[in-house]
Amino acid sequence: MELREIFSRDLLLSLEKCISNGIPWGLNASGTQEVTSFESFMNMFETLEKYFHRYEELENSCKKMYEERNRKWCKKDSKILIYPSGYDGLIHTDYEEEEGDYKLTTITFLNIDWDKSWGGEVLCYSKDCRVVVGGVTPEFGKTFLFNGALPHRALAPVRLSSLLRIVLVTKEQ
Fold first, then answer.
1. What is the pLDDT of residues 40-97, one digit of tens each?
2. How far lies 172's CA from each of 44, 76, 78, 105, 147, in Å?
3. Using the 8-state DSSP alphabet, how is residue 146 labeled?
4. How far apart, in Å, are the Cα atoms of 144 and each of 18, 31, 50, 62, 141?
5. Which of 72, 85, 89, 100 is the S-S candidate for 173 at Cβ 3.0 to 4.6 Å?
6. Does the pTM of the predicted model rise above 0.85?
7. C-alpha angle 102/103/109, rounded to 5°?
8. What stretch of H or E contains 15?
9. What is the C-alpha to C-alpha distance for residues 63 and 156, in angstroms, rounded to an integer?
10. Is 61 within 8 Å of 170 (Cβ atoms)?
11. Residue 146, CA distances (Å) to 33, 86, 103, 172 in order
């Protein structure tokens, strides 16, 4: 497991703004932002294809990151995930572990205004899911690299957060 800065800050700021501007926001009774419908929210779970047309640097950075580790990036499995408060991810693996090898998964945090007290951590577990063996707290621009064969999950932001937690996920082929 490793935490690094892979992508340029300007690229991630531009990507975050582009994604945030596409979210169908409304205001709830307390005056905080919320997604206007479940259907519109589900449409936000999308592949990165439309962003690669606008952000050639994003695609090049992904390729480079994997090539530096002698690995091959899976463009079609790369995506943007958006987590509202109260929606934890399920414990899962991205790959079946092959003897003596692993496949790389990365998660890059895209919320510039994220407060650590809002939660939204990513946790990795032992094979039997009984022990947390690693994890990371969201921090804008940081990329969490880990063995995708490890059971892992994203925790939802706490209810005090008025933001959706947005991440860029990439996977090895």
1. 444 544 445 556 656 778 888 889 999 999 999 988 888 888 777 777 888 999 988 7
2. 22, 10, 9, 6, 10
3. E
4. 22, 33, 23, 13, 10
5. 72
6. no
7. 130
8. helix 9-21
9. 29
10. no
11. 33, 25, 8, 11
